[in-house]
Amino acid sequence: MKHTVTFATIAFWIAVAGLNLMATREPSAADGASRFTLAEIARHADAKSCWMAIDGVVYDFTDYLPQHPAPADAMPRHCGTEATEAFRTKDAGRPHSPYAAQLLPKYRIGELAR
């Protein structure tokens, strides 16, 4: 009985670790990640559907807009665009915080088609 409990506990934690790794791994083009053109991104150019491309990755920030700490018009003006420079400089010559960079994977939906 003791061996069964030990085995079950080990198997459980291995399964949890495996699921955790799968959930945090970012998709790549080889994984069949979605690819979007700038024309497709441009169709999501307002607060109702806000997509941006940053460093070749496409993000859907629609759900994040109400949480963004800057003035309400700061992000929507970049919706539907290639916004790498805007992200890097916050339109004011200052970089976003490391925390902002950590949020990006949550909103990733694919890659920019070249």
Summarize the structure.
The protein is 39% helix and 18% strand. It is α/β, with parallel strands linked by helices and 114 residues long.
Protein described:
Strands 1, 2, 3, 4, 5 and 6 form a 6-stranded mixed β-sheet that branches. The chain is of the alpha/beta class. It has 4 helices and 6 strands; from the N terminus they run H-E-H-E-E-E-E-H-H-E.
Blueprint (SSEs and pairs):
Elements: H1 2-24, E1 35-36, H2 38-42, E2 45-46, E3 49-54, E4 57-60, E5 81-82, H3 84-89, H4 98-107, E6 108-112
Parallel strand pairs: 1-6, 3-5
Antiparallel strand pairs: 2-3, 3-4, 4-6
Question: Which descriptors would you attach to this protein?
Answer:
single chain; 114 residues; alpha/beta; Flavocytochrome B2, Chain A, domain 1; six-stranded mixed beta sheet; 4 helices
> Helix/strand-derived class?
alpha/beta
Count of DSSP-assigned helices: 4
Strand count, sense and closure of the main sheet?
Answer: 6 strands, mixed
Radius of gyration: 19 Å
Give the CATH architecture of the domain at 34-112.
Roll
Helix content class: 25-40%
Residues in β-strands, percent:
15-25%
Total count of strands: 6
What is the CATH topology descriptor of the domain at 34-112?
Answer: Flavocytochrome B2, Chain A, domain 1
Average pLDDT over all residues: 82
- CATH class of the domain at 34-112, please? Alpha Beta
Q: What name goes with the CATH superfamily of the domain at 34-112?
A: Cytochrome b5-like heme/steroid binding domain
The arrangement of helices and strands along the chain is HEHEEEEHHE
- List low-confidence stretches: 16-30
- Could you say which overall geometry the principal axes of the C-alpha atoms support? globular
Q: How many angstroms separate the termini? A: 58 Å
